[in-house]
Write a structure and sequence with these properties.
Elements: H1 3-17, H2 26-39, H3 45-53, H4 57-68, H5 79-95, E1 101-106, H6 113-123, E2 133-140, H7 143-151, E3 153-155, H8 156-160, H9 165-171, E4 172-175, E5 178-181, H10 183-186, E6 189-193, E7 206-211, H11 220-233, E8 234-242, E9 255-257, E10 264-267, H12 283-286
């Protein structure tokens, strides 16, 4: 790979997906794109770049998907799911008691572990959500990972990462050496291909948005723009969950941190009517979620 090849790829990836690679990430591109080159029958990355410049839609799609597919696992980092259980859902249940519906968006749903973790968390509530309409939308830039998420089929290694054994037994069926999440859980998730750099106002508004471990790859201006548009997609009393290495602090004032809930944010115009204690009335019922 020549320096000009690398600069071309850097610019293409930033313009098409928001991925902002520093000048010292050649090793990352080589490790992810050499398999793409071999699959296409090309000797190396320079030839891959020539195909891209020639307008090969198939090659460019494979390049973007290879570079933007990131690691995920069930109940990743635990804390956001504890917040979901102990703070978010109790407040939403109180605030939406009249309409009895909840809309949730996983904005970087990847291969499905995050949206399915949320779906299982809600399923654990049982009677508390009887009669409620639950909508969970999982979006991702990569069509490949969306298809894996739709299938809900995971290896033994994947289900061992973060998934409590009682949930594996309860919500999955074994297919040979693989595990598939049950049809009723899969039916809770709607999937859609979406580039966060593009307009997503057509999705409507959400009570809860999980946008975790994706903004870390964007530059500051892109982050600010996405936060502005996420705020428009949030209900006025909604919630935004970010990854452990992500924050709105110092970037934008469209969201404000939720006190003592790391990684959780509310739209800036929201004013709590009263202080909600952690856990709320539903905490005992939900105590088993995420392995607790």
């Amino acid at each position: 790979m020549t320096p000009s090849d690398y600069e071309y790829l850097r610019k293409y990836l930033k313009d098409s997906s928001g991925l902002d690679l520093s000048s010292d990430k050649q090793y990352l591109i080589e490790s992810r794109l050499l398999p793409v080159s071999r699959k296409a029958g090309l000797p190396g990355i320079s030839e891959l770049v020539q195909k891209m410049k020639g307008g090969s839609a198939s090659i460019t799609t494979q390049v973007v998907e290879a570079m933007t597919t990131n690691e995920t696992f069930f109940f990743r980092d635990k804390v956001p799911f504890e917040h979901f259980r102990n703070s978010v859902i109790p407040e939403i249940l109180a605030a939406r008691a009249s309409r009895r519906s909840i809309r949730i968006w996983c904005a970087a749903g990847s291969t499905g572990q995050e949206p399915y973790s949320l779906a299982m968390s809600l399923k654990e509530m049982g009677a508390a959500l009887a009669g409620w309409r639950i909508e969970i939308l999982a979006t991702d830039l990569s069509v490949e990972v969306i298809e894996k998420s739709k299938a809900g089929i995971y290896s033994q290694f994947e289900v061992q990462r973060g998934l409590p054994i009682q949930m594996l037994v309860k919500y999955f069926k074994q297919i040979g050496e693989l595990w598939q999440i049950n049809a009723d859980i899969r039916a809770m998730i709607a999937h859609r291909q979406l580039n966060l750099l593009h307009d997503f106002s057509q999705l409507g508004t959400f009570d809860v948005i999980f946008c975790r471990n994706v903004l870390i790859y964007f530059d500051q201006d892109t982050k600010v723009d996405i936060f502005r548009r996420l705020a428009k997609a949030s209900e006025p009393d909604g919630f935004l969950a970010l990854g452990a290495a992500e924050t709105v602090v110092g970037l934008t004032d469209v969201y404000k941190p939720y006190p003592e809930r790391r990684g959780l944010y509310r739209p800036s115009g929201f004013q709590a009517a009263s202080t909600t204690t952690a856990g709320g009335a539903f905490a005992p019922k939900l105590a088993a979620i995420a392995g607790r």
